[in-house]
Amino acid sequence: MEPKDWENAIKNVEDENLILRQKLEISETERSLLELQNQEKEFLLKTVTQEFLDSENKLKARMSQLEKALENQQAMQLKLIEAEKMSALGILVAGIAHEINNPVNFIYGNITYVNDYTGDILKLLEMYQSRYPETDAEIEDFIEEIDLNFLREDLLKTLSSMKVGSERIREIVLTLRNFARVDEAEKKPVNIHEGLDSTLLILQNSTKEKPDCKAIKIVKNYGHLPKVECYPGQLNQVFMNIINNAIDALREQEKNRSPEEMEANPSQIEITTSSLAEDWAKISIKDNGMGMDEVVKGKIFDPFFTTKPVGHGTGLGLSISYQIVVDKHGGRLDCISAVGEGTEFAIEIPIVAKPRS
């Protein structure tokens, strides 16, 4: 091969190498551009994904806030309804008590005079009989007809029983008026035992014996307790909620018990009061019902939580009670319960109201 041919061959090789290098450089550039595009896509995808997740979390948080606000609003509305119901009950009870009180006082006040007058008339009759033992046949027949000796004894007994009955009505009226304190907005010293007794009186129809159920035994272990500064109407509402729940639990348990079991171990609610360290009052309300497990016990003070069938409870009774005891009175409300061991609610409140800070 001629030298010139060699030169041309070398030049061709160099040209081809140059073209290859240029193609390689273009390919590298394209690869870099492609990688850059992919990185941009990944970055945009991550950014959009993160923004979507952030938006979703914000939406969830907002929905949670709205649900909580709705729940609080519903709870507040039902609490207002419960308060209105208690207020209406109090007004009704107070009205009935007032209407009964006047005629009962009239009867009670006059029975004493009637008793005295009757005693005087009977004494006068004895004087006539002792001084004029002989009477005509018509009087003798009438004495025998009315059984005068029995009438003398029974008349005084009847008047005595009427007096006892009117005293009982006066006591009932007093307890009704004591219960109807729902409109008292200020704290005042009250006898806690009167509030408990008036609540038991209101619920007496639910605890007494009926054709389909035995009576619920009420055991009162009242200790020495000074007057407690409280909102009496609201505290009576707490007693009403707790005792009524105990009655419902016992009645539900009785559905699965035989007459022999109920006779051997009757349904019972035990109410105990005592002083703690001289400046706290404790009221314990305990039943011997089915009790509850830890899951239920952990939720009983939550708004709307209830174990009762639909239509038999709002799930707000214990929630309202907790608020009244803890928030309104600065006290404590605890539940002690276990399955098969009954349930106890322990209420502790200061005997003397503490000023709000």
Q: Which characteristics define this entry?
A:
alpha+beta, single chain, 65% helix, five-stranded mixed β-sheet, 357 residues
Description of the molecule:
The chain is of the alpha+beta class. It is built from nine helices and seven strands, in the order αααβααββααββααββ. Strands 2-4-5-7-6 form a five-stranded mixed β-sheet. Strands 1-3 form a two-stranded antiparallel sheet. Strand 6 and strand 7 form a beta hairpin. Helix 6 (232-254) runs antiparallel to helix 9 (317-328). It is rod-shaped, with a radius of gyration of 43 Å. The model has no long low-confidence stretch (mean pLDDT 79).
Brief sketch in words of this structure:
The protein is of the alpha+beta class. The protein has helices at 3-131, 137-146, 148-179, 192-202, 204-207, 232-254, 259-264, 294-297, 317-328, and strands at 188-190, 217-222, 228-230, 268-276, 280-287, 332-337, 343-350.
